[in-house]
Each structure stands twice: as C-alpha cells, then as structure tokens.
Amino acid sequence: MSTIKFERNTLFEQFMDVRNFSEQISSPLSIEDYVVQSMPDVSPTKWHLAHSSWFFEAFVLEKFDVNYKSVHPQYNYLFNSYYTQVGERHCRPKRGLISRPTVEQVYKYREYVNNKIEDFFSDSSNKDFEKHAPVVEIGIHHERQHQELMLTDIKNVFSENPLKPVYMELPASSSNGKIPTANWVSYPEGLYEIGHADNSFSYDNEMPKHKIFLGSFNLSSRLVTNKEYIEFIEDGGYKRAELWLSDGIYTVEDSGWEAPLYWEKIDNKWHHFTLSGFKEVEANQPVCHVSFYEADAYARWIDARLPAEAEWEIASADLIIEGNFVESGVYNPISLGGNSKSSSLAQMFGDVWEWTSSPYICYPGYKTLPGALGEYNGKFMSNQMVLRGGSCATSISHIRKTYRNFFPPDSRWQFMGIRLARDE
Amino acid sequence: MSTIKFERNTLFEQFMDVRNFSEQISSPLSIEDYVVQSMPDVSPTKWHLAHSSWFFEAFVLEKFDVNYKSVHPQYNYLFNSYYTQVGERHCRPKRGLISRPTVEQVYKYREYVNNKIEDFFSDSSNKDFEKHAPVVEIGIHHERQHQELMLTDIKNVFSENPLKPVYMELPASSSNGKIPTANWVSYPEGLYEIGHADNSFSYDNEMPKHKIFLGSFNLSSRLVTNKEYIEFIEDGGYKRAELWLSDGIYTVEDSGWEAPLYWEKIDNKWHHFTLSGFKEVEANQPVCHVSFYEADAYARWIDARLPAEAEWEIASADLIIEGNFVESGVYNPISLGGNSKSSSLAQMFGDVWEWTSSPYICYPGYKTLPGALGEYNGKFMSNQMVLRGGSCATSISHIRKTYRNFFPPDSRWQFMGIRLARDE
Amino acid sequence: MSTIKFERNTLFEQFMDVRNFSEQISSPLSIEDYVVQSMPDVSPTKWHLAHSSWFFEAFVLEKFDVNYKSVHPQYNYLFNSYYTQVGERHCRPKRGLISRPTVEQVYKYREYVNNKIEDFFSDSSNKDFEKHAPVVEIGIHHERQHQELMLTDIKNVFSENPLKPVYMELPASSSNGKIPTANWVSYPEGLYEIGHADNSFSYDNEMPKHKIFLGSFNLSSRLVTNKEYIEFIEDGGYKRAELWLSDGIYTVEDSGWEAPLYWEKIDNKWHHFTLSGFKEVEANQPVCHVSFYEADAYARWIDARLPAEAEWEIASADLIIEGNFVESGVYNPISLGGNSKSSSLAQMFGDVWEWTSSPYICYPGYKTLPGALGEYNGKFMSNQMVLRGGSCATSISHIRKTYRNFFPPDSRWQFMGIRLARDE
Amino acid sequence: MSTIKFERNTLFEQFMDVRNFSEQISSPLSIEDYVVQSMPDVSPTKWHLAHSSWFFEAFVLEKFDVNYKSVHPQYNYLFNSYYTQVGERHCRPKRGLISRPTVEQVYKYREYVNNKIEDFFSDSSNKDFEKHAPVVEIGIHHERQHQELMLTDIKNVFSENPLKPVYMELPASSSNGKIPTANWVSYPEGLYEIGHADNSFSYDNEMPKHKIFLGSFNLSSRLVTNKEYIEFIEDGGYKRAELWLSDGIYTVEDSGWEAPLYWEKIDNKWHHFTLSGFKEVEANQPVCHVSFYEADAYARWIDARLPAEAEWEIASADLIIEGNFVESGVYNPISLGGNSKSSSLAQMFGDVWEWTSSPYICYPGYKTLPGALGEYNGKFMSNQMVLRGGSCATSISHIRKTYRNFFPPDSRWQFMGIRLARDE
Questions:
Q1: Does some domain include residue C165?
Q2: Is the ipTM of this complex over 0.90?
Q3: Which residues, in sequence order, are bridge partners of residue C388?
C-alpha cells in the first residue's frame, strides 16, 4: 500500500475507473460465457466480478461499518477466494457449478458495493478515511489483477469450445516487416539495490528494498519470437530430455505438450487460438503461453539462460514504462517495430510476462500486512517462479519495475514469454 | 419402435407435445442454469435441449433429405451423445465448458428442427413417411427420456449451490396421515412370459417376449418409506459391512455415504434438497435417491431381498398404469394415501424407479436395431442394474410394464427407491 | 460343504495332499519371488501360503479350541483376506510391502497349523469332529483355489520383469498338427434344472438346484484358438467401437489394449509370456488371457454370442470331467488333438475358464453359510461375470460341472478364454 | 570432482571401504527385506546395491574398456536411475516388482564390478588412470549417498509392517539430562563468499564460489527438540492455516498429517518408529522427519524463520565437522549433551539435515559436468529446497560445509529437522 496522504476525489475516481473497466471487459460476453470454469486455475467471469466486489466488503466496508450487511449472507462464503482468516470459502474447482447468483444479480451486487464505497468516500470522518483509504487502494490494484485474469480465463474457456468463439474482432495486424536482431545488452558486476521503497503503492512482496550482489550479466535486447521458438520445436526440442529440467520433461510427457498452449498445426502450419479468433501464428510476434519449463529448455537449447529477477529489475532502472498493455485493446503480444534500436532493451513492459530464473520467495526482512490481508502474497511463496514486466492483458496503471508476478512452473494460460540472459 | 401404421396428424401432434414440454420444463430456469454440468453423469439443460433436436436431425432429417444442412456444421460434433457410428463427438465430462451456442441459439436450433420435421410431415411421400415415421416415434420417446434427465440433472446442479435455488415453489404437502402397513402379496411358481410383443412402441431391449420359469415369490404391497429407511441408518446400517455387497461397502467408505443423496442432518433431524427447496424429510414419503447398493443392504438388513425384474413385470400384469408422474408437477415422491388397500400392490408406477436384483443384460434372442440406432440400448449391457416402474419425473406417456431402465449400482441422482421381495 | 459323513483318515489325507501341493507349486521360486505383488489383484506367494493356513486357524482351530494361540498375534490381521466378521485386516494393495514374516517363518507357520490340524484329527471327539470336519473340507477347497492364484499371480509378477524369469522349463509342444473344425452342437428348448443338490461338496453359490427355462441353443464344439483370435485383431477388432460393449471399448482405450494380456508383437509375429518363458504364440492353442469384454466383442464380430452359464451347465451334463488341468504340469492351454471328434463338445474342462454371458448373481432361494464363512461367495455378487469349466491351473479334484467362478469383466490375468454359442 | 592428482592405492582403498560399507549396512536384513519398495521415493535395498555398482560400469568401466561386458545385458536397463543419456531405464515406481536378479546375484554383480575396478587400478596406463580416477571418486561419493538412502528407505519399508521389524537393537539412550537453552548467535551484514573452490572433491552444484550480500542475521545455537515441537502440535499448529504456506496447509489436509512422519500417539504419549524399534519419543532429541512445510510453519509459529543456505554456510565457516553421523551406529538424532556451550552453534553437522529457506537453484555461473554425469544434480533444480549439514545416516566422510542436499518441500522420510534463524 501507499504511505502517501490520499485525496478523496482522486481515489474515488480511480475506484470508479477500475470498477467500470471490469464491466467494459465483460461487455462482449453472452450471459452463458460468464458461468464457465474450464480448469481449476480459471474462474468464471461472474466470479471475478463478484469476488473483486467482495474484497471491498470484507476489507473496507465491514471494517468501516460494523453493521454493514451484504446483499446475501452466503456471498461471503461464495466469493472469498483464499483468505482463511475471513472464514470458510467455497471450493475453488467448483466455481463453475454455481449458476446463481445470476449475472444480473452480480451486477446489482457490484452496484450495491459501489454505492456503499461512495458513501464511505462522502461520509467517513477524516480519521476513518485515512484508516481505510489505503485498503481501498489495495482493492483497486486487486481488481486490476482480476481484470487480467478475466481476459486470460475467458480465453481459456473459449479455447475449449469447438465453435472457437471470438471475444473481439480485430483488424489484421501488418506484420510483414522485419524486426531488429536480438543483441546482448551488458551490465557490470556490482552491489545493487532492488525492491520498493518510496511512499507510492506496492504490494508487500516488493519490500523491503535491499542490497544484492550481482555478477556481470547480459540481457537480450528483445523477446524470443514465434519464429525462433518454432526452430526449437523443429529441432526436436520437446523430445530431447537433456534440454529440460527433470520436472519439466515429465510434465511434457504427461501432458503431451508439443508446442505452446493454444497452438495447433494445420496443413503443416502452426495456428493458435487468440481472443480475436483462431489464426495462423505470426513469425515475429513474441512467443507466448509457454511455461517456465519451456522457457528454461529453450534457453538451454540456445546456450543461454533466463534472467534472475534482480537482473531484470536492475536492467529496467533507466527505462520508461511503455508498451503493449491492455489499454491498446489488442489482447495479444505484437511484433517489435522494424525501426526499434537493437542496441537497447525493447519490449521490457507489456506484451508478455517474462519468466525469470528466480523462485518466488520473500525478500530479506519481509513483513506481511497484518490480518487477513497478510495472506495476499506471502503464503504463496513456494513452488512458484517470478515473472516480470506485465503483459498485453495488464493495465499500464498496474505495472511497476518492482512488480513481482508469480506462477507455478507448469502454468501456461497467462500471457507468458521469454527473454534470454547470459553471463557474458 | 411400433409396427403399427402411423397417422400423420396424430404423430405430429405427439411430436409437438413432447417438443413443447421440454421447453416448459426449462421455463423456470435462468439462462445461467442452462450451462452448468455438476458431475460427468449430468448434462447441462442447454445440451439436453440441443441433443434431443440433433437426434431428429441425425436419424430422420439427414436420412430423409441427403441435402439436409444443420444450423451449424459443428452441432453434429457437439450434440451427439454416444453414437459412434454417427461420427466423433464432444467429450461427455466437458459439456459444462461450452458456453456457446447460447440458450437463445439453442432455442432457434429447436425451432429450425421443428420446422424441418413439420416439412417432413407435410411434404414426404407415403413411402418416405412410412420409412421414417417409426424413427420420429423413437425420437419422441428419446426426448421424453431426456425430459426426465433434465429434471434430475438440474436438481443435482442446484444441490451444489449453497444458495439452494428453488426450481419451483410448491404448496406444502399434508402428510400427517397414516399410511397402510406393508403386506406381502404372493405369486405362485410357474412358467411365465415377459417382454414386449404387440405392435405398440417399445425399445429393442424389451424384446423378444420369452418364457421364463419363476419360483413362488412375494412383493411388498408398497415402497419403503423414509421413516423405515431412517431406522436402518440409526441401526448403524452404513457401518455394518456384513449387510453389504463388497463393492457396496467400498463405495460407502470411499464416498463417505451416511444417508441417501441430498440428505443432511440438521439439529438432529434429517433434511433433504428437493426441486422445491431444502426441507425436512417426511416420514411417510418413499425413500429416494438411494443406490442399488443401499437398496440391497436395506433389504438384507430387514431379511428380505429385491425383486427380480421378471417378478416385477409379472406382478404388474393386472395393474392399471397410474401414479405420481411428472404430469402431477410435484417432482418428488409422495406419501401413499391412508385409504389405500394394503392387500394389493400400490405405488408400482411413478414416485420412484424401483431397483431390481437383475443385472441389465439382453433377453434371449435379442436383436439390436440396424445402424447407429442399435447403439441406443444394447451397448450398455454390462455393470448396470434394471429398474422398473417410472418415477415422479417420468411422463405417464413414456412408461410401460415392460420398460427396462438401467443404471450402475452406485447411481443415486435419479429418483430411485426400494420395493422389497421375498421367497415366501 | 458336503453333507456326507466324513471319514477321519481320508479327510486328513486330502488335507495333507493339498497342503503339500501348495509347497510343491512354490518350490521352483527364489525367496525374492515370494514377496512381490505386481498389481492389487495379485498377492505375493508368501501371502497365499500364509493366508491358506490362517483360514484353518480362523475357521477350524479357533472354533475347536477356545485357547488356541497362533504363532504371532498379528497374523490374524496380516493374513485375513476379506472376512470382515473376523476382524480388521491389512490393506490388500499393500501386501507387497510386507517383507516379514520371512518365507522361512511362513513355512514354519504352515507346519504349526498342520500339526494343530493333525491334533484335531487325532484328538477330537466324534461330536467335535462332525462339527468341524465340513469346515476342514472347505479349507481344502479354499487352498485349491489359492493354488490356482499362486500360479496366475507368479505369472503376472514374472511378466513385469524384463529378465523374463522362467517358472518351469517345459519341452516344446508339438503343435504342427491340424485341429478339428469348430461345429455347432445343438440343444433343444426346455425346462431344465441347474445347480448342486447331492451331498457331495459344493460352494454355497452353486445351490439350490432350481428349474430354469431355456430356448434352444448351440455351443461350439471347441474353444476359439489363437489363430482365430488373431484374425479378429487383424480385422481391426480392437479399433471398431461397434463391436464392443460401451464399458469394453472405454477399457480398451484407457488401457491401450491391442491384444490379449502378455502378448507382444515382435518382427511381425505375436509372442506371449508363459510360465515356461517368452515364446511365439501357437496358432492352434486356445486363446487365453482375454477379458469378458474381448470375449464378447470377438463373439459379436463373428456373429455369435457367449453361452449363458445355464447353457454351459446343461451341455456339460453327459460329459466326463477330463482335460488339461494343473496336474498335467503344462501351465498353459494346449491344442486340441487332431483326432478329436468335431461333432461333440471338446475342451469343456481345463485349459481355460470359459467366459459366459451371465452376470454373477445368486440362484433363486440362495442362502449364505452362517457367520463369517457366509462372506466366502455371496458378497461378491455384483459387477462380475461367471466363468465355467476350470483351467490349466485348476486341480481336477477342484472342478465340478456346477462350479461358478467369477471375475470382473476387465480381468485378464487368469487363464480365461472363449467358447462361442448361438441361438440356432 | 577433485582436481588433485589421485594416488592409486589411496583411491582404491576408499573404493573398497565404501563398497564394503554398503554390504555392512545390508547385513542385518533378511533376503525378503531387500525386495520391497514402500513408496515411489523409496528403492529396494537390492536396487541400491546394484545401482551403485552400475554407476561404476556406466561411467568408468565402459569408458575405460570399449569391450566391457556386464554380467547381464538387461542390467543397464534395470539399474540406471535417471540418466537419460545412458539409455532407456526401468520405471522408478516399479522397482519393487522385480524379484530377479536375486540378492545373491546382486552380490555377485557387486563382486564382478569390484574385480573389474581392481583391474582398472592395477592395469590402467597413467593417462587412462588420470582420465577415469575422478569419476571413480564421484562413484564413491555417489555410493555414500545411496548408503544414506538405504537406511532411510529400509526404515520406511519396515514402518509399513505391522510387525514393526527392528533393523538393529540399540542400548537405551540416557537422555534424562538437561540440554542447554537455545540462544541466538549473531552474524553481521556483509559481502560474503559461498561455494566450493579448492581442488578437493565437491559436486558441481556447490560451484562456483561466488560473492553474496547478506544482511545481519542470527542462528539458533541448537536444533529444535521434540519437546518444543510437541508444544507446536498442542497449540493446534497443524490446524491453523495462518501459520502455513498455502501449499503446506493443503498437503497437511490432503495427507492427514498431525505430527512428524512415523509418529503415533498411544495412551496420550507420542511414540515413533525408529530403526531400533517402536519407542516413546524422547523430549530432548532433535525433532526429525518433518517436511519443509512443517519446519516453515513451526518457525512462523515461534516468530522466527528458517536460515537461508548462505547464512548456514557462512555460520559454519569456523566450525569443526563433527557430530552424530552414520559411523556412530545410532541411526537416530541424539540429545545435545547438557554441558554443551549454549553460546556457540551446536549440532550443525550430523543428527538431521537442516531445512533452509532457499529453493534449490544453480549458483551464478554454474556449469554442469559434460555428458550424462551432467544430469547428476542440475536437472533437479526446480520445486526443491536446500538442506544442509548431514544427518545421523550420513557418513562424516561425505559431508562438506558447502554440501547442498535437496528435497521437495513435502518430503519427510529423510532424517530432516529444524534450526531457527531470525533477522536480529
């Protein structure tokens, strides 16, 4: 959370922006689309819309007003995701079995919560406002995270349907051009600092700022492309155990992976399912929907490695945060322009989350938030890997250089890709 | 199928009746309710509505008109249930992942099929009509079967929801009265005949009519009630291995069964989820939602047995088909009236399907229908048990004395109950 | 059990014969071979040797002498198979995790039990002897059953080992000769009787003798051979869903079956693992190690069916029990001699258990034995099919015309084969 | 591997020592004990004895002599553990299904390999010796690792047996005394170096030596004891989700954990299964057989944390390697003597492997060994945690301050315990 002093109007505007954007994301859907859960990792759109509202109830409204009553006493049970200190919750893999509340009722629930938050903004004492405003801010960031999941989850739901529904038609991209060669950008050995320190917003897991010693390293100037990744496939990459971590090759064999998620070979050409339909894979777009295991194996194949998260953060220090975010409305990574300079880092933000070689553990001196909000990040610090930089489904208002995203090494349904590193 | 000569108007009226009734059953649902599949045995309502339409396409319209085109080329893939000879089909346990076609599109699909069938009735030559009318009749019976599944499946879907949705509010039943004592009705040893023979409709698995020798036997004059079954529970029935088949007690232990499906003990009283809400169990209603294993264990506990299907059929010979069917609109078994005669068989039809001791195998001399329709019944003749008599979710127009329903011995989500038998 | 009067010397001789034969069967094994359990259905040889001894303790010695003490208080827990009324028992799939008692200790345990039974024979009063002798007789038959399992289980254990151990070297069979054509032997419609009635030994599930009406039927004069079954394989039998029961084709697909158990194609020739090593399949030997599903599909493919168990029993009425049993020491089905008469039934006994079309359920009027022995047969009467006639691993002293063996329809590790039937 | 010059006699002596010690560890076993695999992580003793011999064949003898022939052509298949570059290998979870080769044959195999290695020592040219001696050294260390597994695996096998076999009777320990209070030993912030650098032996994963910045930290002067851990249990530790990582509490719930592995509460007292039998838990012994999840939750409960592996290594710098190793013949952690100084670190070596907070990943600049030996460590660098210090089943000749052991966070069957750390 931030430690700045909040301004009522500004914060409420941010609140309403994020609330409206969730509904904008949902607007192309049919009612039926809101209900489905295609795998345990995925939640129905309806659930995301309700859960992000519940968050404001559980962590702001009920703290602010002890007499607060939700629309329905069971919503606390249905829409709590994983906060054990807030009480029992509905079993995650069964979210797709719940047809009620209906979509209409969920929208009414959202409106109810919005009104109550509006009351909080207009009626709270300064003392109360200062106490709860930082949690409203967390709720805003929390909903931004769920907006990204709404897009990746509906992509997964639609991908299961042989009718191949289209979330949003998009004009064909003009990707015939060349893209710059990948070059190594080098960074010297040294004692660096990473982590969040100023009074702007961050999650607890980005703190504290701390010293870290790094040897010299190089990062690739751009992301790995589909064309480059297809070379790995065609070189037998998925069959050659020596390129993989042991857990990785077992996953490949058990799951029958032969290419990134959503890829299918038709008439000897790779196609993939996107939010704007089923299309041929474009050579120069960044490869996407690969797991950590695939990213790691690709790097080993080409005699490189993945960056450590500290390396990524150090390298990002002088960059401006710009790129292909959700605001561009493309919902897919895009090719790097042919006139990008190949001597500096490109595509560090947006397009795809970049797998790092760093397991997700706490920074030295890490403290969780008090109470149930302490469960937000800390309890997931095992068996996951850090990703950096945001994706085409992330809001530019959500990303930070210190932002630590994390997923299990076999996850593929997020927009996840590969940037290479090497020692020298 | 029937071997009678069909009359165009009558058959078309039956067709439209059954088509309309499916939509009447669906009418209390919200759009979201049509989408959910709560377990692999259950199908979404949307799927039932589409599949029963596809049946007419695959087995009538496409045979009648070689140029017939469905609304969408993928519907044949999505809405084929298990007819391998009609081509590839969508994986059954994944029916709940398919949000499109939408409910509205499914209703349009139904209308499209209805219109095409109407064309068949109005335009077909006599020769064509005579050829395809018997299959229309099968399709009508097929849709009746799916109407029963629509009710049992939506009950299962709703039961998963902590909000306990109500399908249809019903006036409270007046069940304070007494019910008649259960008496044994006896039948002599003899060489009998069972099976279907005349030219009215039946499924292939009810034929041929054949001789069977039966020793003398007794059937209970009425169904086992909730009160009687609770005595079994309270006597430790679910814990006493010696009362159970070996597969049965393993199922009990693996599944944690302690009572019939949908039952829950609250404040020391048994309640159950019904299509009209969550209610206290009524003592005199027939026990329902028990598996074959539970029916068999209950019978052993009380020193009786389940009837063989032939015994049930012989005993039904002189009875009129009447009872609590779907047409009564109760969707739950009801108590036997206090003034029923206890000396003759009651509740043989409707209320609950009655588990028999007979594994579902073919009758001697059984022949399947030619082509894909031969898959309708014959290929399920292993690991299932026969049930007789229809239930409160069956249409009276669908049941016959020779009707053989069948489910695996651990199934509970149909309206299934217990009638006792003994040798003498 | 028998209802005859037992003669002490004769029964004790039978007892010692069966006890010695178990040890003779084990004698070719290394100590390590006694320990392994290759799948849940299989038990280690060590366990069979101990369990068949425990049976005499639990059902004879402890009843005869209330002060009876076993060698170790835990043996009752370790070596009870499934008799819930005798107390808790060790989990079946974990039998292969138990290295102690050692093989030497198990042999001592057997000797201990033998001595105590010898004491029973020498010391019991006539009243006691008459009471317990029938249970000794059951124990003898019980051990015969386990002798068959010892052979089928060690075959399964050895088949898992890439070293392909040989249980017993056998001289090559001379099978170049012809075998008789299969002919249909016909039986008229009629009211027959099946089941056991006289005072000789039978299991409870063979009783009571009862009337049954059968239509006219035909049985094939001999078993289906490997050559005939290979034609089914080569005709795409395992890929053609229309030939299979629904449960059958799912099993084929889930398990990847392409041929009988133990078969492997090498250099385009079918080989199989046998107790005398890994060998080429012989054309004229009866096909073996097929499931009910495969037997049923084969029959459908060739436009026949499997016999009902009553048909098999009626057909066996005039035959002498003779054939290739365990006493022949071949441990594999053998080719029918070229000079057999093709007009009468051959191979009805021995060689392979013959799958019938009859689910394993009780006969009308069936009563289980009192107490824990009532668990011997009755509680398995669901989801299994009857097999008839004994196999090359059965003792001729164990088989009867009324003998009902039973296994689940997907079982293959017993010596199981196919005899065809048809209606006319 | 070492980079020193090897001396033939010394290395051969080390070789024979380690080979003999494996057989000494096996000597208390019955032949049956060698065969069993109690879970996929466990291997049969017989397999360990053969696999450690195969290692010398695959990596020394076959490289040294192109005409080398093993005792049996299938041994390369049966006894390869996971080296994909050496060829296909037998499926790990099926090691317990293989009764042959017999124990006697495995001992002959060991002797055969010993003789061939002796030939290598006596007959190799200096050039050949220098080339292969470093791999012999790896093989020696490899066999030491398997000796530890032989003990932990046979403990697991015996623990499954209700007879509770005793591996080795031991005199009762005198543990009535007090043990020193746990104190915090502090270390200043600084730029340190960790990893292996000199020319003595290490595994590749301990290299390269590299700089790392650490904040100030404290380590507890001794291990957590059973008494202290029981307080955690009695405080509801296993039920309080807020103390656990999310993966941890799911594991607890799925697995039904209520205490460390091998613990059982009898008459309200905790007992545990040990290699010298089933005994009451001793209060002052280090707690053992806990997973990373339990170690982490215990630390959170007591408001501390686990040490990072770098912290552990820095703290060990000035210590002498001494403690309760396998050479003491106790096979269980022992209580700290009452007269230990509580101001310095005790129990850093031996007794139990100490879980660290560090995921097992490569050091910066890590290079694997060339060829199949490169699979020894590197490919396991995901989803595992580092443990340090060796245990009561480790040889003192095997441990190093830089030694990185690693296991998945839910593993418990090794001798694993807890040392606490905190920031200040």
A1: no
A2: yes
A3: C354
**Residues of chain A contacting residue B34, judged by C-beta atoms under 8 Å apart:** 32
- d(CA C4, CA B421) in angstroms, rounded, equals 33
Question: A7-11, A284-288, A297-301, A339-343 — which is least confidently predicted?
Answer: A339-343
Helix axes D292-301, D226-234, angle to 10 degrees: 80
Q: How far is CA B137 from CA A32, A34, B59, B79, B200, in A?
A: 32, 37, 11, 20, 11
- Of C143, C159, C175, the residue that ends a domain is C159
Q: In this complex, which chains have at least 3 CB pairs below 8 Å with chain A?
A: B, D
Shared domain for C150 and C188, answered yes or no, is no
Minimal Cα distance from D38: which residue of C? Answer: C97
Nearest Cβ partner for D241 among A84, A247, A364: A84
> Measured between CA atoms, how close is A193 to chain B, in angstroms?
47
Q: Between chains, do A101 and B163 touch, taking CB under 8 Å as contact?
A: yes
What CATH number is given to the structural domain containing C230? 3.90.1580.10
Instruction: Please give the sequence-ordered ranges of beta strands (E in DSSP) within D130-253, or none if there are none.
Output: 184-187, 190-194, 210-214, 217-220
Helix (H) / strand (E) containing D358:
strand D353-359
* pLDDT confidence of residue B4: 75
Domain range for D304: 184-423
**N residues, chain A:** 424
Q: How confident is the model at residue C198 (pLDDT cuts 50, 70, 90)?
A: confident
B380: helix, strand or coil: helix
Residue stretches of chain D with pLDDT short of 50 = none
For chain D, positions 153-212, list CB contacts with chain C under 8 A.
157-158, 160-163, 165
d(CA D66, CA D268): 63
For residues D212 and D263, state if they share a domain.
yes
Q: Do A34 and B32 touch (CB under 8 A)?
A: yes
Count of beta carbons in the 10 Å neighbourhood of residue C122: 9
Residue A277 burial (CB < 10 Å; 0-12/13-18/19+)?
middle
Domain count, chain B: 2
Residues of D with Cβ-Cβ distance to A249 under 8 angstroms: 84
Give which of C29, C30, C31, C32 to mutate to test D binding, by max D Cβ within 10 Å: C32
Q: Which of residues 145-164 of A touch B (CB under 8 A)?
A: 157-158, 160-163
Q: Can you give the CATH number for the domain in which D99 is found?
A: 1.20.120
Angle, vertex CA A73, rays to CA A68 and CA A77, nearest 5: 110
Same domain, C332 and C371: yes
Tell me if D383 and A383 make a contact (CB, 8 A cut-off): yes
Alpha-carbon gap, residue C159 to C276, rounded angstroms: 11
- For chain B, 424 residues long, the average pLDDT of each consecutive 10-residue run is 84 98 98 98 98 97 95 94 91 96 98 98 96 96 98 98 95 72 96 95 96 98 98 98 97 98 97 97 97 98 98 97 96 85 87 98 93 90 98 97 98 98 92
pLDDT of residue D339: 66
Q: Taking the complete model, does pTM exceed 0.90, yes or no?
A: yes
Residues pairing with B212 in the sheet: B192
Position of tokens 């939509």?
A: B23
Tell me which chain D residue has its CA closest to the CA of residue C164.
D100
Instruction: Answer yes or no: is D168 within a domain.
Output: no
C147-159 confidence digits (pLDDT tens): 999 999 999 999 9
Q: Give me the helix-helix angle, D292-301 and D246-255, nearest 10°.
A: 120
- CA-to-CA dists, residue A275 to A39, A150, A151, A331, A410, angstroms: 18, 12, 8, 7, 22
Does a structural domain hold residue A169? no
**Helix H or strand E encompassing D45:** helix D45-56
Q: What is the number of other CB atoms lying within 10 angstroms of the CB of residue C91?
A: 9
Q: Does the residue A122 lie in any domain?
A: yes
Token pair listed for C93: 């799939």
Instruction: Answer yes or no: do A359 and D359 touch at CB < 8 A.
Output: yes
- Type of residue found at D233: I
